[in-house]
Amino acid sequence: MKSSILNNGLISPKSFLFLIISLLPVILLNSFNYSGWENYLEVASILFLFCCIFFFFQFIFLNEQKSILALLILLFPTLFFEFFNVLILNQYLSHDNIKSVYYTNWNETIGFFKDYVKYAVIPLFLLLTLLLILFLRINKTPNKPKRKVTLGLISLVFGVISFSIPLIKNLNSYIGLSDKNILAYTLREDFFKKPPLNFYFRLNELRSYLNNYGKYLKLRETFQFKPVIQVNEQPDIIVLVIGEAMRYKNWTVNGYERLTSPNLLDQNNLISFHKHFSNANQTSNSIPTLLTRASPKNFEKAFQEKSIISLFKEAGYQTYWISNQFIFFLENEDEPDSLIANLEIPEITDLATLEPFEAILNADDENKIFIVINLIGNHGIPPLPYKNHFKPNTSAKKIIDYSESKEELINDYDNKILFQDYILGKLIKELEKKEKNALLMFTSDHGIRLFDDEDSSIFGYGSDRPNLNELHIPLFIWYSENFKKNNIEKLHNLKKNQNKGSDNLTIFFTLSALSGIGFDNFLDHKNLASNNYVELDSFPVFFKKRYEYFQIP
């Protein structure tokens, strides 16, 4: 390949040398994320992509200096931003990394580089080497008549090979069963979100974010709920637990034939709502509508107003957030009084939430407490014995043939539900020990499709066309004996409304009402604890950057 390209005068030795050197950072940046054969496929795909871009620039400019300079401009931010991110955080540049850089001040930037200047050695060395090659004087490539067509074809071939590698990989993974647009998914996740294109993709995300929501953030800084508090109705402890991809159907407490929720079945003071739905089939859209008064119809409100955490702060509660995965889509990591983020624990399980939860309950006896816990749920692997309870499963498999593993994948999921039930049981036991006026609410960001009858070949969530199995989620409310004594009418209404349709917006109004908190424009017809609750027969769902109404069966 080398001798053919050089001997035929397609590119000069100088361009070829530049290509070889510039591939080094691409290899380094893409060698940390996987192990085994996946690592080699990942690197090979990106190398072919880079060669595609290289020959594309040669095809466009037919000028050695211009094409090399264009490649250097493309590579420059990758050399620095991606290198820092990979070496320090062990991850590719993310949307939040770019936002952090955008919002930081000059002094913070200088302080950062002083602390991490040693990491600049490799990218600086590579940059200087590439600049040296750029200014080398080597004989130019002759401008042969058919050269442009040949360069275009070579670029196309490299592009097709580069795209085919992750496409085949995705088709043979759970993504191939998820009803997502596999071509768009591959392009976004395996090209735009990887070096050398990732930096520009993240810049575009930042531009879109600032255009859509940046103008609202100033409003949110000064926003206040100005709650009206009924002191004698305020519980001592309120806990909101958010699961990950937990669907309604697979809990025994909701009628599932398997024993997946033995701990919740043993709870007398538990109410399950049978027609509760998420407004989105992916986390980034569902969490803002779960924590705020926003809905798909007025999503900007999630950024204009503060979340339910601030409502409880204004009402006199000490607020905590225990996080097992990154769901801070509202840029609100600073909103709680205390954030316990278990984001850097390798192979984390939801057991990591129990110790800080117990510590909060034991350390803060004087204040009223509001705690948000977001679990890793379906994204995590349960510890033994939970991951092997339902068999056969995929826990011992290194390579999974998703199209032939339906039974194992369903068993995997039920094992995760069983473990989630254990976590909820432990949280409830800790609350019972305190013998206080306490309340716990559990729901999920979205559900999942599990080879259901109407789509028996589909597994996963986040599909381009949302499905009710991705949207039908559990909503459980547990209450202590002391809460029961003080809230007989509210509990009566909750039980009366448990078979009525509801969506994420009811979380905000129901939880605040159960805590004796009111505010201007309180929508009592969205409050499940009210006699005035109005049942939903349909609900808005995010659909292709818009929303559509889905009927509740």
Structure description:
The protein has helices spanning 2-7, 13-29, 37-61, 64-89, 95-103, 106-116, 121-134, 147-171, 182-192, 198-212, 217-222, 262-265, 283-291, 301-304, 308-314, 354-363, 406-434, 468-471, 481-486, 488-496, 505-514; strands at 228-229, 237-243, 270-272, 276-277, 317-323, 338-341, 368-374, 438-444, 449-450, 459-460, 475-479, 502-503, 517-518, 538-543, 546-551. With 553 residues, the protein is of the alpha/beta class. It folds into two domains: 2-212, no CATH class; 238-525, 3-Layer(aba) Sandwich (Alkaline Phosphatase, subunit A). The strands form five sheets. It has a seven-stranded mixed β-sheet, with helices on both faces. It has a two-stranded antiparallel ribbon with strand order 1-13. A hairpin with a 2-residue loop joins strand 14 (538-543) and strand 15 (546-551). The N and C termini lie far apart (61 Å). The mean pLDDT is 85.
Which helices and strands occur, and which strands form pairs?
Blueprint: H1 2-7, H2 13-29, H3 37-61, H4 64-89, H5 95-103, H6 106-116, H7 121-134, H8 147-171, H9 182-192, H10 198-212, H11 217-222, E1 228-229, E2 237-243, H12 262-265, E3 270-272, E4 276-277, H13 283-291, H14 301-304, H15 308-314, E5 317-323, E6 338-341, H16 354-363, E7 368-374, H17 406-434, E8 438-444, E9 449-450, E10 459-460, H18 468-471, E11 475-479, H19 481-486, H20 488-496, E12 502-503, H21 505-514, E13 517-518, E14 538-543, E15 546-551
Parallel strand pairs: 2-7, 2-8, 4-12, 5-6, 5-7
Antiparallel strand pairs: 1-13, 3-11, 8-11, 9-10, 14-15
Helix pairs in contact: 2-3, 2-4, 2-7, 3-4, 3-8, 4-7, 8-9, 16-17
